[in-house]
């Protein structure tokens, strides 16, 4: 009788232990957070930080996200299950804002207000960091070559053709020597632009602590403008 009682007690205890384990397992399963979907995590990041997501990659159990906000680029590492932000850092390379140039019609209006004659040629030069419109204005025998800031419409330089000038062009080496008198450094680029008054060179020089672009008349060697960076 005692053996039966002991077996009964042991059986009951075993059932209680099994029931307890099952209850714990079920409870953990019910209370465990449901993993967020990729779309939910994507939307949460945009809502939390604003800006625009540039890239969204899955790497192992994480998302690698590039976020653009206020012209700055950020890199995020996000847990792919919970959506928790594991790391956020700003990338060194800033995002360049899209440049808005003045329309050609506006440039023509500026020229008409300030100069007599007809516009013979107009072109937009975006090769440099400071974009410009190159314009040739003809008024009878007079030729005027203009450089106008493509963003704010400011007249940067004005060159009138001189028939008495020596027509021989300066060499690139001579122009570089002229530019280096203003800023000694490494010549990054030199370009020639032909105009009715002999043309000009644009010389880009990288100095120790600053850079500059020099506009130099191709015949006289006169420094027409300097753009510092």
From TrEMBL:
Coiled-coil portions: none
Residue ranges constituting the PepSY domain according to the UniProt record: 102-157, 170-226
Keywords: Membrane, Transmembrane, Transmembrane helix
Source domain of life: Bacteria
InterPro entries the UniProt entry points to: PepSY (IPR025711)
Pfam family, one: PepSY
Chain segments annotated as transmembrane: 7-27
Protein name: PepSY domain-containing protein
Organism (species): Viridibacillus arenosi FSL R5-213
């Amino acid at each position: 009788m005692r053996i039966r009682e002991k077996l009964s007690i042991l059986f009951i205890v075993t059932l209680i232990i099994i029931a307890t384990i099952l209850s714990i397992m079920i409870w953990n399963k019910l209370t465990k957070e449901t993993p967020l979907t990729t779309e939910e995590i994507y939307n949460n990041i945009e809502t939390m930080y604003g800006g625009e997501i540039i890239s969204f990659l899955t790497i192992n159990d994480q998302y690698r996200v590039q976020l653009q906000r206020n012209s700055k680029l950020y890199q995020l590492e996000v847990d792919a299950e919970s959506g928790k932000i594991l790391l956020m850092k700003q990338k060194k390379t800033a995002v360049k804002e899209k440049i808005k140039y003045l329309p050609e019609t506006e440039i023509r209006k500026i020229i008409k207000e300030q100069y007599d004659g007809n516009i013979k040629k107009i072109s937009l030069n975006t090769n440099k960091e400071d974009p410009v419109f190159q314009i040739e204005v003809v008024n009878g025998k007079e030729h005027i070559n203009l450089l106008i800031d493509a963003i704010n419409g400011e007249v940067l330089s004005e060159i009138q053709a001189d028939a008495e000038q020596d027509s021989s062009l300066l060499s690139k080496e001579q122009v570089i020597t002229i530019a280096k008198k203003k800023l000694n450094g490494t010549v990054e680029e030199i370009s020639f632009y032909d105009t009715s008054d002999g043309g000009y060179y644009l010389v880009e020089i990288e100095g120790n602590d600053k850079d500059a672009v020099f506009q130099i008349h191709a015949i006289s060697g006169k420094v027409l403008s300097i753009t510092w960076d």
